[in-house]
Design brief:
Elements lengths: L4 E2 L39 H7 L1 H7 L2 H30 L10 E2 L4 H13 L7 E2 L4 H29 L2 H5 L2 E3 L3 E6 L2 E10 L5 E15 L5 E7 L6 E2 L5 E6 L11 H5 L4 E10 L5 E8 L4 E3 L1 E3 L3 E3 L4 E3 L7 E3 L2 E2 L3 H10 L19 H13 L20 H12 L11
Parallel strand pairs: 5-13
Antiparallel strand pairs: 1-18, 2-3, 4-6, 5-6, 6-10, 7-8, 7-9, 7-11, 11-12, 14-17, 15-16
Length: about 425
């Protein structure tokens, strides 16, 4: 195997010496599942912002918190209107066996709470009911019915929006656990794989990648910079798992980075895929990140698509599987420079028509004159025959040889 090439495993121990000793492991900027590893502190008027956009707040909170809030909203409304009915019963004297009460069969606070619950949930057991003797009680029942409709609508809308959230659909579109670097069409390329695990496929999608650098200064200041990466064929239809690749060429953040430089580099590759679902028509986004330890040098994703008689079969057990390939350890910049300096066997200087000088007319005339001065070459073949040869005189034999070896003037420059 040539010294320039090697197959590297992610578990291989490659010693990298740094000037400041071992580097401290940094936190991820984007977690593997796609959530941001960012916590906000001391936000001005934070509670006011959450209350102002209460719908988005309830959609983003966890299910157990949402169920607790909705249960409390019903219970507190029943309790509030039950207190109102109890106050009305006390003021009207319904607890003292009044013959014309505002609410029938409401003589205690428990009965008032049950009447509020039955009114808001429209149970109607038949024991308790309103009478036309008290207008204030009729107004309270009307207000409670209207508020009950608003609570039911709000709860149903929040539950539907939370179930159809883009985060749940994003969990069915996944990235590979690692990214790989290998040769593709003679160029070093960084690639990763993305696939849709559901049968209802996406309408269209756009892939994007950025390099995120976080630099910490001695004063404690942290600078976060972003570098966009050019992706070939970024607009795709995700019917089958697709390998997205970035060609490491001039202008790429990885152009001057070799294997050793990659192992001691400090950055984070953030990739995302924005797409439209064909079932709901909603816009979703799935994202993840790769650290330099998760970028495998000299690896290639295994093929997971097979063609049968009637279908294309996709084996998702090979989604994260890679195989070792021969890849130069040098950077893409050094690799391109070595390719330019390497002579091509098809265009050697000895055989190239452009490398040899074109003969001048004067030299062509000299070569033609030299060919005319060279004596002709004659090939004589001796044939033995069993038949007796006729006797020929010496003079006739000499004349015969002279006739045989004489050549015309116009054939002096050819070979016989």
């Amino acid at each position: 195997m040539h010294k320039q090439y090697t197959s590297v495993s992610p578990t291989d121990d490659i010693s990298v010496k740094t000037e400041n000793g071992p580097q401290q492991k940094k936190r991820r900027y984007i977690r593997k599942e796609g959530s941001c590893n960012v916590v906000f502190r001391h936000v001005p008027e934070e509670w006011l912002l959450f209350v102002t956009d209460i719908f988005t707040t309830l959609v983003e909170i966890r299910w157990r918190v949402m169920f607790l809030i909705f249960a409390l909203s019903y219970i507190l409304s029943w309790l509030f209107f039950g207190i109102l009915y109890w106050v009305i019963a006390l003021a009207h004297g319904d607890t003292k066996n009044n013959t014309s009460p505002c609410v029938y069969e409401v003589r205690s606070f428990t009965a008032a709470f049950l009447f509020s619950l039955e009114t808001q949930t429209t149970i109607g057991y038949g024991f308790r009911g309103m009478s036309e003797n008290c207008m204030i009680a009729i107004i309270v029942v009307t207000i409670q019915d209207v508020i009950s409709c608003f609570i039911d609508t709000f709860v149903i809308g929040i539950v539907v929006a939370k179930m159809a959230s883009a985060r749940k659909r994003a969990q069915t579109v996944g990235f590979s656990n690692c990214a790989v670097i290998n040769l593709r069409d003679g160029y070093l390329c960084l690639s990763w794989r993305i696939g849709d695990f559901r049968r209802n496929h996406l309408v269209e999608g756009t892939a994007r990648a950025q390099i995120v650098h976080s630099t910490m200064h001695a004063t404690g200041k942290i600078d976060i910079t972003y570098e966009d990466m050019v992706i070939q064929q970024r607009d795709i239809v995700l019917v089958t798992p697709t390998t997205i690749f970035h060609r490491i060429e001039p202008g790429s953040p990885l152009y001057s980075m070799s294997l050793v430089d990659l192992r001691k580099a400090d950055f984070e590759l953030v990739v995302s895929f924005t797409y439209t679902d064909d079932s709901t028509g909603m816009l979703h986004q799935t994202r993840t990140s790769y650290t330099p330890a998760e970028i495998l040098w000299g690896q290639l994703f295994q093929e997971m698509i097979r063609v049968s008689r009637r279908h294309y079969r996709v084996d998702y057990t090979l989604f994260n599987h890679t195989a070792k390939v021969l890849v130069p350890e040098v950077s893409a910049e050094d690799y391109e420079l070595k390719k330019q300096l390497r002579p091509s066997p098809r265009h050697s200087p000895r055989h190239s028509p452009r490398s040899s000088p074109r003969p001048s007319p004067r030299s062509q005339r000299q070569n033609h004159h030299e060919k005319l001065l060279t004596p002709p070459k004659v090939t004589v073949e001796l044939v033995t025959d069993s038949h007796p040869e006729p006797t020929v005189s010496t003079s006739q034999a000499e004349n015969q040889h002279q006739d045989t070896l004489s050549l015309p003037n116009d054939l002096t420059s050819t070979e016989i």
